[in-house]
């Protein structure tokens, strides 16, 4: 394969990838998800962009990592779309923003606040970041079938991870379920290109100020058994949701 056969930023092939993709932040998580697939092969690994292909219950899928933060992640989303991916699910982690959402629970995103640090430079802020309804429903069906604790709601995609002088109060009482760093960039990219996209997030801590219990938790620590168990459930839920989306697409095309 020559350099001309590869896309410039991620170095993924311009053609040949399965059109159903699961995107994650951590390259190691991409490898862990790929290990659940039949016939998994590493397609490429450049910078934070690690890409695998394989099959889940007979469905060819792409699994790819995008790193931390929307400005870098959107480059993967754009180049995967250039390479022919038509359906995206982001599988990541997030902090809970309201009471009743526990560590290890899944949050299925209906839409995202565009505070991602990149899409504001691409189009007006009034443009929404919304999940495809069929992606939301597929994720919900898959979560129910897996008996995975889950919630639906709005998420806040925010560029800054570490807290600063500005408190996390901008969306108090707005009903947000969770906060994360990349999803709105995916949803905007998909909407602009007429693609299907959604996201499911594993809660690895509480971010709303009134929910943080540092005395009992010791502060933010995503490396706990309850989170690991949620990640394992979330990987299966995400892959199964891709299969349901493909099944629905085949039925509508028949």
TrEMBL record:
Instruction: Note the Pfam families from the entry.
Output: PNP_UDP_1
Q: Which reaction does it catalyse?
A: uridine + phosphate = alpha-D-ribose 1-phosphate + uracil
- Give, as one word, the top-level EC class: transferase
* Residue stretches in coiled coil: none
Q: Which InterPro entries match?
A: Nucleoside_phosphorylase_d, Nucleoside_phosphorylase_sf
Q: What is its EC number?
A: 2.4.2.3
What are the Nucleoside phosphorylase domain coordinates in residue numbering? 20-237
Q: Under which name does UniProt file this protein?
A: Uridine phosphorylase
Query: From which source organism is this entry?
Result: Streptomyces lutosisoli
